Amino acid sequence: MKRENFTAERVTAFKCQTGKQQSIYWDGKAPGLGLRTTAAGAKSYIFQTDLHGKTIRMTIGDLRTWGVGAAQKEAVRLKAMTDQGIDPRQVIADAIAVKEAEAAEIIAKESRETVRVSEAWKSYVTERSASIVDGKPEWGTKYKTVHDIFVQPGGVKRTRGRRPGEPDTTRAGALFPLMDMRLADLDSKAVKTWLDNEIPRAPTNTAKAFRVLRAFIAWCSKQEAYSAATHSDACQSDEVKKGVPKPKAKPNDSLRKAQIKPWFEAVQKIRNPVISAYLQGLLLTGARRNELAGLRWQDVDFQWKSLTIRDKVEGERTIPLTPYLESLIAPLPRRNDFVFSSPTAASGRIEEPRIQHVRALNTAALPPLSLHGLRRSFGTLSEWVEVPAGIVAQIMGHKPSAIAEKHYIQRELDLLHLWHVKIEAWILEQAGIKLTPVKSRLRVVKNSARSHK
Question: 309 - beta bridge partners?
């Protein structure tokens, strides 16, 4: 097509040729400048030239916003760039990227100024609660509940489980004071101040809350929405780490040999047979309180004498069903799926057996003993039977501590059963309990071929 010097009148008169979707008219003055017209009536200036052996084309702008003189100047500028080997498209793309980065920085800055810990915490709990690993939720119900308790505002009237000296209403969770802070202000200094305020009131609980806080901050530092406002080292300074209480076992929080008999006598008098059986089960298995509370009937194998425990360390473990424990479990009511069921609890299982346990301890004039202390008692009392440490650890669900335990020793259930029965028999002997065998659920059927001989 013949090149003509562009004028306002000419470019206005240019039309798309009949039968074509678009037509291009080239300027005779500015090299590379063209006017593209379409069948729909749209008109725009374009620039086209050769760069590095290839033809490049780019849009300058609409005819309605670009005058002829301005379009010609832009074409000359672009041609000067390509003559120097510069791709104007890349220059424009780089400029856009810079502007986007600047906009992102503005948004990040606004986020640092406004986002609260509570907002990030809500996202953290939601994301972690939905996480699935190997087909199973990464967070169990109990673990999610712990996180909720740590941030609860408190002030709720207590209806049960009130310890001596506790106020009528619940106190705020250990992490609640941090929730209204800006995430950008949650640095090592803020964490140290928080520890100094919380430790005098509840050192052990504060140490647990610190570990939860540390995981939360690590998560925030990896999220695009919060990383700019997160001090990833907030829990890592020496001053902070030195201030965190070290985990300690409660002193004297286990039954001594002489206390076994009065403990059993008091617990057996508890009117609720489910709670009575549950407390004895904690002592006789060394299971964690929620592991045993979550035991379902499908996890009990009366034929092969085993219990499958939902283990917080390994996922699950199988331990022996010893004779006396079987005699406690077998007659329990089968209200639902749970062995230690409750007709009133929303979960369907017992939730707070501690109240009955404390009453039993008071009745027997025994010192305070936590439910976890019953687990500790199992491990301690087992030493009287001279049981190999690895046996006790496997029954209780402890992580193997030695190379041999981790990689070489694989004990069958029968071997665990042999030792577990010895432990139970010794404890029952100290308690003065004579075991009445449970009637077998299996019937012996005579071989018909032999019976005719």
Answer: 317
Q: Are 308 and 401 in contact (CB under 8 A)?
A: no
pLDDT, tens digit (0-9, with 9 covering 90-100), for 111-124: 667 889 999 999 99
Q: CB-hemisphere CA count at 13 Å for 298?
A: 3
Spatial CA neighbour of 176 closest among 196, 194, 152, 206: 152
Assess contact for 46 and 24: CB atoms under 8 A.
yes
Give the separation between CA 366 and CA 265, rounded to whole angstroms: 12
Joined together, the tokens standing for residue 198 give 């919380």
**At which residue do the structure tokens 């017992």 appear?**
350
What is the distance between the alpha carbons of residues 71 and 34, in angstroms, rounded to a whole number? Answer: 9
The overall pTM is greater than 0.70: no
Which candidate, 220, 195, 219, places its Cα nearest to that of 208? Answer: 195
User: What whole-number distance in Å separates Cα of residue 258 and Cα of residue 276?
Assistant: 20
Nearest to 109 by CA among 227, 222, 228, 231: 228
The number of CA neighbours under 13 Å toward the Cβ of 449 is 0
DSSP secondary structure letter of residue 157: B
Other residues' Cβ atoms within 10 Å of the Cβ of residue 338: 21
Total H helices, total E strands in the chain: 18, 9
